[in-house]
């Protein structure tokens, strides 16, 4: 299968690109960090149009997004909204034009209407539904990150423990999340792509571990891997999800199951970051 990975240099995109290649698939990479011609915000992007026309499947992972620190600072800015609406408009137009099978990466936050990020993802889900694509909802995927300005909590905590011996948290850590290792995420994406024509578009596809963990627990799991590391919670509460708690639809378990628990997954990432 010839696949186009939009956002191929991102946390999930880079892992997926490697996974697809190792599985024997042909991969066309597309990410603004590779070249300015790979900017999805460019209206009538000739390269995008050409690739969407020639590949067998498109993984639409590209988005202007980052961890909680990034979202808290930028999601309510004009640039954040403009970047994401522009890249969705151009990409979905190309997908409509060529009818190429595709998967849109959304978020479990898409029903959080107070979040600009959540509203943007909900708009993308509407495009995908109209075009009969597959929408998947990511739940806090973690893996190797290259853009540390947009890094997520597990990467942040590992770097703090490794470099300073102190994990000073942004919140009190009582908020709960479901975390998923990037390798498990990649297996899910490819498995769903292989079942593309058979999956009901009425079912929600939640790609998650189905295990709840508090951010404070994450900090202590990471601290245990770095002797004498101190964990210092803040007093602030979560301002991104505002303690809203979704429940993941288990339908996806008919096709795929995660293999990493949070402890083994974090150990794997620490080893890869060494």
Describe the structure.
40% of the residues lie in helices and 16% in strands. It is an alpha/beta fold and 274 residues long. The protein has one domain: Rossmann fold. The strands form four sheets. It has a six-stranded parallel β-sheet, with helices on both faces. A two-stranded parallel sheet has the order 6-9. Strand 1, helix 1 and strand 2 (26-30) form a beta-alpha-beta unit. Helix 1 crosses helix 7. The radius of gyration is 18 Å and the shape is globular. The mean pLDDT is 93.
SSE order and pairing:
Blueprint: E1 2-6, H1 11-22, E2 26-30, H2 46-54, E3 57-60, H3 68-74, H4 78-98, E4 102-107, H5 116-130, E5 134-138, E6 141-142, H6 153-164, E7 166-168, E8 176-178, E9 180-181, H7 182-194, E10 205-207, E11 212-214, H8 215-223, E12 230-232, H9 262-273
Helix pairs in contact: 1-7, 2-4, 4-5, 6-8
Total helical segments: 9
The spatial strand order of the largest sheet comes to 2-1-3-4-5-10
Name of the CATH first level: Alpha Beta
> Going by CATH, what is the homologous superfamily?
NAD(P)-binding Rossmann-like Domain
In the CATH hierarchy, the third-tier topology is known as Rossmann fold
The total of beta strands comes to: 12
Uncertain stretches? none
The whole-angstrom Rg is: 18 Å
Tally of separate domains:
1
CATH architecture name: 3-Layer(aba) Sandwich
Distance between the termini: 33 Å
Kindly estimate the percentage of residues that lie in beta strands according to DSSP: 15-25%
Biggest β-sheet description: 6 strands, parallel
């Amino acid at each position: 299968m010839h696949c186009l990975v939009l956002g191929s240099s991102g946390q999930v995109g880079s892992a997926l690109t490697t996974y697809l290649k190792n599985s024997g698939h042909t991969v066309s990479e597309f990410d603004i960090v590779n070249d300015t011609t790979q900017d999805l915000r460019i209206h009538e992007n000739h390269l995008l149009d050409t690739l969407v026309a020639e590949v067998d499947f498109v993984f639409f992972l590209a988005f202007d997004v980052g961890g909680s620190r990034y979202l808290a600072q930028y999601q309510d800015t004009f640039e954040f909204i403009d970047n994401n609406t522009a890249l969705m408009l151009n990409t979905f137009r190309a997908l409509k034009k060529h009818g190429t099978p595709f998967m849109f990466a959304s978020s479990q936050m898409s029903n959080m209407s107070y979040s600009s990020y959540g509203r943007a993802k909900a708009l993308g889900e509407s495009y995908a539904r109209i075009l009969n694509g597959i929408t998947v909802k990511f739940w806090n995927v973690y893996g190797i990150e290259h853009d540390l300005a947009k890094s997520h909590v597990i990467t942040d905590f590992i770097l703090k423990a490794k470099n300073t011996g102190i994990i000073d948290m942004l919140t009190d850590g009582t908020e709960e999340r479901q975390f998923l290792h990037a390798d498990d995420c990649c297996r899910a994406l490819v498995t769903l792509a292989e079942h593309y024509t058979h999956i009901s578009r009425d079912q929600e596809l939640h790609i998650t571990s189905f295990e709840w963990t508090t951010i404070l627990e994450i900090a202590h799991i990471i601290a245990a891997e770095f002797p004498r590391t101190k964990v210092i919670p803040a007093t602030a509460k979560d301002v991104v999800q505002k303690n809203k708690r979704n429940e993941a639809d288990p339908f996806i378990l008919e096709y795929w199951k995660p293999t990493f628990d949070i402890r083994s997954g974090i150990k794997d990432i620490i080893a890869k970051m060494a």
